[in-house]
Amino acid sequence: MKYESYLDSPYRYLNIGEKAYVTKSGEEITTNLNTGEMFVMKRISGNKIIMHDSRVYTKLFQESIHQLCSMGSGALKVMLYAMATVKPLSETVVLNGPDVMVFCGIGKSSFYDSITELLDKKILCKKLGSSIEFWYDPNVFFNGNRIRMVSKSSISSLNLGDEI
Description:
Strand content: 15-25%
Strand order of the largest sheet: 1-6-7-5
Radius of gyration: 20 Å
Order of helices and strands: EEEEHHEHHEEEH
Shape: elongated
Number of domains: 1
CATH architecture: Orthogonal Bundle
CATH class: Mainly Alpha
Distance between the termini: 18 Å
Low-confidence stretches: 158-162
């Protein structure tokens, strides 16, 4: 089966919208009188030390779990590789066959069958001009804050289009 390649991502960011900001305990909203911009100020302890989790992570969205449970083990391994290697705020992932096969412990035919399954399930789409770079569905997994990927003016149109 031949799969279409895309110059730009064919995926749409779903379920991103505006909501009212509610201040938390110890926070105050202030306005810059020169620019009109609003900021949240938070009281912090005197030592300015905060908790921080330095582990690298990629979000897996709960709505996609059912779809993933129906995948074969090879496709699931390739998807986990994609999740582990996707760069922050990137809409594409590089799946170089030899690297993926070694990392996942799968053979060449299993690798290509897995890519085909991920393309069939529309978790991946081919990127035009590359045989190893793929667009991935940011509603299945994403590394970073999806809100940074969309502009405020396009938020209203995000949920209107059909899913790929």
